């Protein structure tokens, strides 16, 4: 089946968080896509909506089976039914885990730059963020294991929130890297939360490795958060899963999610997720090809037309991580300037930790015409910024 990702989708006036902006602005910041979801998912939701009654909803065996089959087929990892707990989203799950598995004033490690909402889940619950900066050589990010061991060895450190693949730098972590992380966390009694919401959005020919699949220590000391929402543009359905192989840890997370009332689905959460995992594969494969072409087009444009900035190479996500340090260390000021002068709305790198200063994040999950518009605005804004 052919899928038309060039088709424009007007999201203004739909209560879209991303598109609730001024008429002249082009939002390329928050991580949702400007594509319609797979037709098979639309059909399933429309059929459910046609029933007309929207009461409390159970979690059927089909939901568990769809996730099991998907992960076993696409990622060669068998998830047992008993390991899974439904939740309303990855962020609610992380926040619940922070509250249940750590105590106030304890420390949570983040490998920065990293997804900004991790900071909120820690700080809003009275815990301390410890930034462990990734090493960066101008092209590639990696884990600084000497620094990581130092922060994990602190008795006040009780949790590591891990992003696999990594947002915003687009890194697919290797088995060896994750095994070393797992060993260190096990050694120092630090539990791992692995956010794997971007796991399907890898470049064609690239695949991610589930953290829990790497070793027995990784499996027994981790909580994995998964969802179809980023992959299939379903964030508004509030549907996700937490996968916890260890029975004792799983009971604590089950209690956390139920105490926070985050373990019951809305009426479309089951329908959308099941349809995605059962029928969404072909659409996803076509999407990955399209996103990769967008990424290549953006990289070529930036290299040729805006040589003062540098696109960090990535293997996953639809987010560009752009190094602007040659022209400024103040990415917040630069992002504000671009928005004011060109209408291009990007994310400032400082949101993702101290090491994000001097970087911008750009969402390219959009039709090619929108991408070209965004790149032209970026070029014009950068040129104006340099010579102002």
Can you tell me about this structure?
GO terms for molecular function: cysteine-S-conjugate beta-lyase activity; pyridoxal phosphate binding. This is cysteine-S-conjugate beta-lyase. The protein has 388 residues and is α/β, with parallel strands linked by helices. It has helices spanning 39-51, 61-75, 90-101, 117-123, 145-152, 175-187, 216-220, 229-232, 247-259, 269-279, 281-305, 331-342, 368-386; strands at 26-27, 84-87, 107-112, 128-133, 135-136, 141-142, 157-163, 191-195, 222-226, 240-243, 310-311, 319-323, 344-345, 347-348, 359-363. The strands form four sheets. Strands 2-10-9-8-7-3-4 form a seven-stranded mixed β-sheet, with helices on both faces. Helix 2 runs parallel beside helix 10 and helix 12 (331-342) crosses helix 13. The mean pLDDT is 98.
Helix content: 40-55%
Largest sheet, spatial ordering of strands: 2-10-9-8-7-3-4
Our measurement of the CA-to-CA distance between the termini, rounded to an integer number of angstroms, reads: 50 Å
Q: Give the low-pLDDT segments.
A: none
Largest sheet: 7 strands, mixed
Strand content: 15-25%
What's the shape?
globular
Overall residue-averaged pLDDT value: 98
Rg estimate, integer Å: 21 Å
In short:
The chain is of the alpha/beta class. Helices cover about 40% and strands about 15% of the residues. The protein has helices at about 40-50, 60-75, 90-100, 115-125, 145-150, 175-185, 215-220, 230, 245-260, 270-280, 280-305, 330-340, 370-385, and strands spanning about 25, 85, 105-110, 130-135, 135, 140, 155-165, 190-195, 220-225, 240-245, 310, 320-325, 345, 345-350, 360-365.
């Amino acid at each position: 089946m052919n899928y038309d990702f060039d088709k424009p989708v007007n999201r203004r006036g739909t209560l879209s968080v991303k598109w609730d902006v001024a008429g002249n602005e082009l939002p390329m910041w928050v991580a949702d896509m400007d594509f319609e979801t797979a037709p098979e998912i639309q059909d399933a939701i429309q059929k459910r909506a046609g029933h007309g009654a929207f009461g409390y909803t159970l979690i059927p065996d089909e939901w568990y089976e769809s996730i099991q089959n998907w992960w076993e087929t696409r990622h060669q990892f068998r998830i047992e039914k008993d390991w899974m707990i439904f939740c309303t989203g990855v962020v609610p799950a992380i926040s619940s885990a922070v509250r249940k598995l750590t105590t106030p004033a304890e420390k949570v490690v983040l490998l920065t730059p990293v997804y900004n909402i991790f900071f909120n889940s820690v700080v809003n619950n009275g815990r301390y963020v410890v930034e462990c900066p990734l090493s960066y050589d101008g092209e590639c990010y990696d884990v600084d294991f000497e620094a990581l061991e130092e922060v994990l060895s602190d008795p006040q450190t009780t949790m590591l929130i891990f992003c696999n693949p990594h947002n915003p730098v687009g890194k697919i972590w290797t088995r060896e890297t994750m095994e070393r992380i797992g060993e260190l966390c096990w050694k120092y009694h630090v539990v791992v939360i692995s956010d794997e919401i971007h796991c399907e959005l890898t470049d064609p020919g690239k695949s991610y490795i589930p953290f829990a699949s790497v070793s027995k220590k990784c499996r027994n000391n981790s909580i994995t958060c998964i969802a179809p929402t980023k992959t299939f543009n379903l964030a508004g359905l509030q549907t996700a899963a937490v996968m916890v192989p260890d029975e004792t840890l799983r009971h604590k997370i089950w209690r956390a999610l139920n105490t926070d009332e985050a373990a019951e689905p809305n009426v479309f959460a089951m329908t959308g997720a099941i349809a995605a995992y059962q029928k969404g594969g072909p659409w996803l494969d076509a999407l990955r090809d399209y996103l990769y072409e967008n990424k290549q087009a953006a990289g070529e444009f930036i290299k040729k037309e805006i040589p003062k900035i540098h696109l960090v190479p990535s293997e996953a996500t639809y987010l560009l991580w752009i190094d602007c340090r040659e022209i400024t260390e103040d990415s917040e000021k630069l992002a504000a300037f671009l928005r004011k002068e060109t209408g291009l709305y990007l994310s400032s790198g400082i949101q993702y930790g101290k090491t994000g200063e001097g970087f911008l994040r750009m969402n390219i999950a959009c039709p090619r015409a929108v991408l070209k518009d965004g790149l032209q605005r970026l070029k014009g804004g950068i040129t104006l910024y340099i010579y102002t």
